[in-house]
Design brief:
253 residues; UDP-N-acetylmuramoyl-L-alanine:D-glutamate ligase; two-stranded antiparallel sheet; 8 helices; 36% helix; globular
Amino acid sequence: MRGENVITDCLIKDNEHQTRLAFVEVGADAERSFEFYGKSPADLAFVADDLPKSVLKKTKLLHFGSLALTDEHSRQEFDRIIGRRGSDTLISFDPNYRASLWKSEAEAFKILNSFAAKAHILKMDLDEAMLLCNCNSLADVLKSLSFETTQIVAITLGSDGCVFKSATHKCRIPGFSVKAVDTTGCGDAFMAALIDGILSTGEQPRTLSKDELYKIGCRANAAGAFTAMHYGAMSGLPTVAKLNKYIQSNIET
C-alpha cells in the first residue's frame, strides 16, 4: 500500500479477531455468488475511537460499505464516525447488498435506506437501486430518487454502463465492450474511479456540469470494464497508468 502512496497511519492490527472470509463462485457468464464465513470478524470490532478525530475533521471524503452495517453495534459506531466528520467532509456510500448477511430483506431495506439518506454520493447497481427505492424498473428508480442530502446517485448497469443523476442533471453513459471473465471487484473499481473523479474536480458534486459527470462516469465505467477482464477482486484492479492507457485505446478521439 505504501508503494502505491497510500497513507497507512490509521491502519490497525486486530490481534483478537480474524478477517471475514468471502467465498466467490464465478459462473460461466462471469457473474458471481457469495458465501461469507467468520464468527465475530474484525470488521465488526471496528469502533469510532479507532479513527482519530483530527483525521476525520480534515478528511475530504468518508466512504463506507454495508457489511458491518448488518450488526447493530457496528451501525452505532458508523453513526458516531459520521457525526465526527468535518463540516466539509463528503459521505460516500455503496450499499453492496449481500442477502446472506442480513436477517431479512425488510431489515436490509430499512437500514440501507437510513444510511443512504446520509450520503452525498450514492452508488448502487440496478438490483440494489430497485430494492432501496421499492421499484421495478430503472425509470421508476430515477423518478423516485430524492436529493435532500444526496448530491449524486450513480447506478451501474453492467455492460450497459451507468446512469448518473443529480438534482439538476441526468446522463446515461455507455459501457465498454469487453470479454468478461470475472466481475468480482468491478463495483469497487467503479467506485474508486468515481470518488477520484469527483475529488479531482475540486468542486462540490452538486455543482458538476453534465459534461463533467459524463467524463467521470466514462472513466468509472472503464475501471469496471478493465477489472472484469481479469480474475480476482484485487488482482484485476487497474493502476492509474493502466486505466489511462485503456481509455486512450478504447475511446475514439
